[in-house]
Amino acid sequence: MTQQLTARPIRFTADIAAHRRWLEALGATVVTDAPGWTVLAVGSGRLALHDASEDRPSGLTTLGWEVADLDAWHEHTRDAVPGTLGEAPHGRAVSVTAPDGTEFTVDPAADPEQPTPDDPALAVLPIWVTQDVDGARGILAAMGARGRLVADSNVWTDYALEGGGLAAVHDTDGEPEVELAFEFDGDVETLIPVLRGVGVEALLIDETYGRTLQVPDPDSPGRTIRINEAQRDLYGYRRMD
């Protein structure tokens, strides 16, 4: 369907090559490769890597989305999504401002330069951290995201996107932000030697919701990018679908 939404968050970085190294080791392929702008397809969804700048510092992640037919998607969602179709600085897009002030664009999907990954196990998972949980949920649902899991505490809600990738909303007392994360539908421990093969030492930990692989963040020494193992134990959570 032309209206299917794909997750494609944007990571602003001073080291695109470092991100490509570990992601391509896990099977990511190139969608677009241009100076200062690289889009990778992971097993499910896409990730854009953008050169950092003074107003977009290294380590910043923003929401981003793609659809095959921008006009059809906008026509289908215009009554529920506070977006404007027009020319953005990077090209034609729907520009959206969410109730909490979070800004993002929905862009036409680019044709990939390389075949997409065969294994869909690794999915991109941008996490929208906000005080306005209901507002964020409403925007994602109106955009076409399908609710998947919600915590009984209401602190976490995640969504699957028909075009690929996942998205989550996480409650906070602070300012809204976006965290870059991934989900792996398999044993995350099997990724450790693969990453070690390209010089990346990841740490396996047990969280209350399952196991997580912590990958050193090339943009923020001492911080990590999480690869969550797909959740099997639903204690404290309920399915939305």
Describe this protein's structure.
The protein has 241 residues and is mainly beta. The chain has one domain: 2,3-Dihydroxybiphenyl 1,2-Dioxygenase, domain 1. It is 15% helix and 41% strand. It has 4 helices and 21 strands. It has a 6-stranded mixed sheet, covered by helices on one side. It has a 5-stranded mixed sheet with strand order 1-7-10-9-8. A hairpin with a 2-residue loop joins strand 8 and strand 9. The longest helix is centred in the middle third of the chain and has 11 residues, at 133-143. The two termini are 20 Å apart. The relative contact order is 0.18. The model has no long low-confidence stretch (mean pLDDT 95).
